[in-house]
From TrEMBL, chain A:
This is Short chain dehydrogenase. PANTHER family: NA(+)_H(+) ANTIPORTER SUBUNIT D1, NADH DEHYDROGENASE. Pfam families: Proton_antipo_M (PF00361). The lineage of its organism: Bacteria, Bacillati, Chloroflexota, Chloroflexia, Chloroflexales. One of its GO terms (molecular function) is NADH dehydrogenase (ubiquinone) activity.
From TrEMBL, chain B:
InterPro entries: CPA3_antiporter_subunitC (IPR050601), NUOK/Mnh_C1-like (IPR039428). Belongs to the CPA3 antiporters (TC 2.A.63) subunit C family. Its main location: membrane. This is Cation:proton antiporter. The chain crosses the membrane at residues 6-21, 28-47, 77-98. It is found in: Cell membrane. It comes from Candidatus Viridilinea mediisalina. Keywords: Cell membrane, Membrane, Transmembrane, Transmembrane helix. One of its GO terms (cellular component) is plasma membrane.
TrEMBL record, chain C:
It comes from Candidatus Viridilinea mediisalina. This is Na(+)/H(+) antiporter subunit B. The keyword Repeat does not apply. Pfam families: MnhB (PF04039). InterPro entries: CPA3_antiporter_subunitB, MnhB. The chain crosses the membrane at residues 12-32, 38-60, 72-105, 117-139. One of its GO terms (cellular component) is plasma membrane. It is a multi-pass membrane protein. Keywords: Cell membrane, Membrane, Transmembrane, Transmembrane helix.
Length: 507, 118, 162
C-alpha cells in the first residue's frame, strides 16, 4: 500500500479552495504563494515518485481501504510517474509565466483555482486505475479547461470555446457509452479486473466495438486525424499561458489514456487494430504538418504542429509492442516540454508586437537575441536534430518501427520531421530574421519573466538530449510495465488476480 | 422492458444527432442534452442481469443481508455521477452559448467562424 | 432585468415562506441520517438549495440573495476545505485516504459520529453553494457569466450591461 499516492491529488484540491478564498486584489500575493507552494510540493513529490517507481516497481493504493476491484484504486507505474512529473513541471513553469504576463483581472477571477483544478484532473487521470474514475478525472480537467478557455469572454474566445466545449462533450459522451458497454460486458470497471476478464469474453465483436469507442473518445481529445478540428480553431484565442499549458497537457492526457486503456486493458484488440491505428497515425502526422504550412499566425502554426506530434505518439501505440509504447512515451514526454517552450517563446514575441500575424512581425533576432537563440534551439528539438531531446524521441520511434517492419510509417515519420523543420523555419524567417517593417524602437522589450519559462524548458530539453541514456532506460522500463498485463494485475489485485479477491468477498 | 429501453435509447441518439447537425446553437445544445440522456439510459441497461423491476438495492438494516435478485446498484451510482457531471457541463454550456450569441448577435453556427479563417 | 417579470403569485409566496425553514431543517436531518440510511450530504445540500431556489422563483433573485447573505463562492471553497481536511486523518495513521474513524458510542438523538459525517458536511456546504450559485447566475440574466472584464471588453462584443 502506497498511501502517499493521494498526496498529489490532495495538494491541488486544497490549494485551489484556498486560492479561491484569496482571489482578491489585496490578497493576490497570498493566492500566488499558495498556488506556488502546492505545485512545488507536487513537483518534488513526483520526482520522488519517479525514483520510487524506478526502484520498487508499480505502486498501488486503495481509497478508504476497499480492496482492488471494488474500491477507488490509484496505480503509479513508470508511464504515469513520468507523465505526472512532466505535467507538474509544465504547470510550475506556466504559473510563473502567468505571474509575468497576465493582467490582474484574470488573477482576481478564477484563473489560479482553475489551473490547479486542471492539474488535479490531469494528475488524477495519470494515476487512476479505474476506467470510470478516469472519466470523472477527464471531466474535471475538461471543466477546468472550459473555464480557462473562455475566461476573459472576448468574441474569438467565445466562438472557439463553444466548438471546443461541444466537440469535447461529444467525445466524453462516447467515453461514457464505452464505460457502460465495458461494464455490461465484463461486469467491472477496474482496469486490472477488466484486463483479466477480457480474455474470457465470448463475443469478440463487442470488444472491437468498445475498443473503437475508446479510440474515438480519446482520439477526439488527443486531436487525431478526423477529430482535430476543435484544436486549431480554439487554441490561439486564450492568453498565451493558457494555450501553452493546454498544448502541453490536454492532448497528451488523451494520448496517455489511449496508451493505458488500449495498450494495457484492451491489448489483444489493439494488436488486431494496429494497422488501422498506424494508418491514422501517419495521416495525422502529414495532415497536421501540411495544415501548419498553410497558416500565417504563430500560435495557429504551433497548434497544427500539436496535431502532427500526436501522430507520433499514436505511432508508438500502433506499433503495439513494449518497445513501441516505450518510444511513444519518450516522445510524448519530450514533446510536452518542447511544445510548451515554443508556445512561451512565440507568445513572448507575440506580446511584444501585440499580434501573432507573421506578416506584421519581424526583426526580433536583432532586438531580442536571447529569445531567438532559445527559439532556434526549440525548433531544432521539435524537428529532431541532435543533441536535443527530440532526436532521441524520434530515433526510438524509428528504431522500433523499422525493427517491427513497419517501414511505411517510419518513412512517413522521418519525412514529417523534415516538413516540421521547414514549417518552423517559416516562423524563424518571418518573426525573427526578416527586417521589421515598422519602427521597432517603440515596442516594449521582453521582460525576463516572459523569457525564462520558455528558456528553462528548452534547457531541460537540451539536458534530456545530453543525458538521454537515463530517460531512454526509464521509458523502456515504463513501456515494458505498460505492456505487461500479468504484472499489472498482480500488483493491483495481488498475485492470485482480481477474480480470487472477488470470490473471497462473495463467499 | 429491455426492448422498450433500447428503442428509447436509439431514438434519443437519433434525435440528438439530428439536432446536432442543425446550424442553430440552441438546437446543438438540446442535441447534446439528449445525447447525454441516451448515454445514461444505456448505462442503466448495462447492470448485472439487465433491468429488474421492484427489487431496490437496499441492504437489510438489521442483518446486512441482500435480498436475492436485487437490481445492480453500481450502474445507478455511475449514472448519478454522470448526471451530476452533465448537469454542471450543461449549465456551463448554456451560459457560454448565451454569451456567444450575445457577442456574435446571431444564433447561427455559420456566423461563428471567425476563428477558423486564415 | 431586461424585461419585467411578475413575481406575485400569492400562493407560491406564502408556501415558499412557510416551506423555507422546514426544507432547511429537513436538509440538516437528511445530512445527519445519511450514513446508514438513504440521505447524505449531497441530497441534503440539494434540498437546502431547493429552498433557496424556491425563494428565488417566488420573490426574485435579489430577495433570494438577501435571505441568506453569504458569498456562495466562499461557502463552496470552505466546503471543499472541510471535506478534504476531514478525509485526511487516516493518512497520518498510515491508512489510505478517506478511511473512516467512528466514535465508539452513538450520541443520543443524533447517532454515531465519525469523520465521514464531517466529510459529508463539507459536501453539503459545497452542493448548496454551487447549485444556488448556478441558479442565481442563470436567473440574474444581465450579470450572467461575469467573465467579461472591463479592460478586456471588445467594442463589437456589444453585450448589454445593465
Amino acid at each position: 500500500m502506497a498511501n502517499h499516492l493521494f498526496l498529489p491529488l490532495i495538494s491541488p484540491m486544497l490549494a485551489s479552495a484556498l486560492a479561491l478564498l484569496f482571489a482578491r486584489d489585496k490578497t493576490r500575493m497570498v493566492a500566488r504563494v499558495i498556488v506556488l507552494a502546492s505545485i512545488i510540493f507536487n513537483l518534488i513529490y513526483s520526482i520522488w515518485l519517479l525514483w520510487v517507481v524506478g526502484n520498487e516497481g508499480i505502486q498501488v493504493t486503495q481509497g478508504a481501504g476497499w480492496e482492488a476491484p471494488f474500491g477507488v484504486t490509484l496505480v503509479a507505474d513508470g508511464a504515469s510517474a513520468l507523465m505526472l512529473c512532466v505535467a507538474t513541471l509544465l504547470m510550475l513553469v506556466t504559473v510563473s509565466y502567468s505571474f509575468a504576463s497576465l493582467d490582474p483581472g484574470y488573477e482576481n477571477f478564477f484563473y489560479y483555482p482553475l489551473l490547479l483544478l486542471l492539474l488535479l484532473g490531469v494528475s488524477g487521470a495519470f494515476l487512476t486505475g479505474d476506467i470510470f474514475n478516469l472519466y470523472v478525472w477527464f471531466e474535471i480537467l475538461l471543466l477546468a479547461s472550459f473555464g480557462l478557455m473562455t475566461l476573459g469572454g472576448s468574441r474569438p474566445q467565445l466562438e472557439g470555446g463553444l466548438k471546443y466545449v461541444v466537440l469535447n462533450l461529444f467525445g466524453s459522451t462516447a467515453f461514457l457509452v464505452a464505460c457502460g458497454l465495458i461494464y455490461g460486458t465484463v461486469g467491472s470497471l477496474n482496469m486490472a479486473h477488466v484486463a483479466e476478464r477480457m480474455s474470457s469474453v465470448t463475443n469478440p465483436g463487442i470488444v472491437t466495438v468498445i475498443a473503437c469507442l475508446f479510440f474515438f473518445a480519446y482520439g477526439g481529445k488527443a486531436a487525431i486525424l478526423p477529430l482535430f478540428f476543435w484544436l486549431p480553431t480554439s487554441y490561439h484565442t486564450p492568453p498565451v499561458a493558457v494555450t501553452a499549458i493546454f498544448s502541453g497537457l490536454l492532448t497528451k492526457v488523451g494520448a496517455y489514456s489511449l496508451y493505458r486503456v488500449l495498450g494495457l486493458v484492451l491489448q489483444d484488440e489493439l494488436i488486431r487494430l494496429a494497422p488501422f491505428v498506424l494508418a491514422v497515425a501517419g495521416l495525422t502526422m502529414v495532415v497536421g504538418v501540411f495544415g501548419a504550412m498553410a497558416q500565417m499566425n504563430v500560435r495557429r502554426i504551433l497548434s497544427f504542429h500539436i496535431i502532427s506530434q500526436i501522430g507520433y505518439s499514436l505511432m508508438g501505440l500502433g506499433l503495439a509492442s513494449a518497445i513501441g509504447l516505450a518510444a511513444g512515451l519518450l516522445f510524448t514526454a519530450h514533446v510536452m516540454i518542447v511544445k510548451t517552450a515554443l508556445f512561451f517563446i512565440g507568445g513572448a514575441a507575440e506580446q511584444v508586437y501585440g499580434t501573432g500575424d507573421l506578416k506584421k512581425m519581424g526583426g526580433i533576432a536583432r532586438r531580442e537575441p536571447l529569445l531567438s537563440i532559445f527559439w532556434f534551439l526549440g525548433i531544432l528539438s521539435l524537428a529532431g536534430i541532435p543533441p536535443m531531446s527530440g532526436f532521441f524521441g524520434k530515433l526510438a520511434l524509428l528504431q522500433a518501427g523499422i525493427n517491427q517492419g513497419a517501414l511505411l510509417i517510419s518513412v512517413v515519420a522521418a519525412f514529417t520531421g523534415i516538413l516540421t523543420f521547414f514549417s518552423m523555419l517559416k516562423i524563424w524567417n518571418e518573426v525573427f530574421w526578416k527586417k521589421s517593417y515598422g519602427d521597432m524602437s517603440k515596442l516594449p522589450r521582453v521582460t525576463p519573466g516572459l523569457l525564462w519559462p520558455g528558456a528553462i524548458l528548452v534547457i531541460i530539453s537540451f539536458a534530456l538530449g545530453i543525458g538521454a541514456g537515463g530517460l531512454v532506460d526509464y521509458s523502456q522500463m515504463a513501456g515494458a510495465q505498460l505492456f505487461d498485463r500479468a504484472a499489472y494485475i498482480s500488483s493491483v489485485c495481488g498475485s492470485n488476480g482480481c477474480e480470487a479477491v472477488v470470490d473471497l468477498a462473495l463467499r | 422492458m429491455i426492448f422498450l429501453l433500447s428503442i428509447a435509447i436509439g431514438s434519443l441518439f437519433a434525435g440528438a444527432i439530428f439536432l446536432m447537425l442543425r446550424r442553430s446553437v440552441i438546437k446543438l445544445i438540446l442535441g447534446l442534452i439528449l445525447l447525454a440522456h441516451g448515454a445514461h439510459l444505456l448505462m442503466f441497461t448495462m447492470g448485472d442481469g439487465g433491468v429488474r423491476r421492484g427489487a431496490p438495492p437496499i441492504v437489510d438494516y438489521e442483518t446486512g443481508a441482500v435480498a436475492p435478485g436485487t437490481a445492480d446498484p453500481l450502474v445507478q451510482a455511475l449514472i448519478l455521477t454522470a448526471i451530476v457531471i452533465s448537469f454542471g457541463i450543461t449549465a456551463f454550456i448554456i451560459a457560454l452559448a448565451y454569451r456567444a450569441t450575445q457577442a456574435v448577435k446571431s444564433d447561427d453556427l455559420d456566423d461563428m467562424a471567425t476563428t477558423d479563417r486564415l | 432585468m431586461s424585461k419585467t417579470v411578475n413575481y406575485d403569485s400569492i400562493v407560491l409566496r406564502t408556501v415558499s415562506r412557510l416551506m423555507m425553514p422546514l426544507l432547511l431543517l429537513l436538509s440538516v436531518f437528511m445530512l445527519i441520517r445519511g450514513h446508514n440510511l438513504p440521505g447524505g450530504g449531497f441530497i441534503g445540500g440539494l434540498v437546502a438549495s431547493s429552498a433557496i431556489i424556491m425563494q428565488m422563483i417566488a420573490f426574485g433573485p435579489t430577495y433570494a440573495r438577501d435571505v441568506i447573505r453569504v458569498n456562495y463562492l466562499t461557502l463552496a471553497s470552505i466546503g471543499i476545505l472541510i471535506a478534504v481536511v476531514w478525509s485526511m486523518p487516516a493518512l497520518f495513521f498510515g491508512m489510505p485516504f478517506m478511511a473512516a474513524f467512528w466514535m465508539s458510542a452513538p450520541i443520543p438523538g443524533v447517532g454515531t459520529m465519525g469523520t465521514p459525517v464531517a466529510f459529508d458536511v463539507g459536501v453539503f456546504l459545497t452542493v448548496i453553494a454551487v447549485t444556488t450559485k448556478i441558479a442565481l447566475l442563470l436567473s440574474e440574466e444581465p450579470d450572467l457569466f461575469p467573465l467579461d472584464m472591463e479592460d478586456d471588453e471588445e467594442p463589437e462584443a456589444g453585450a448589454p450591461r445593465v
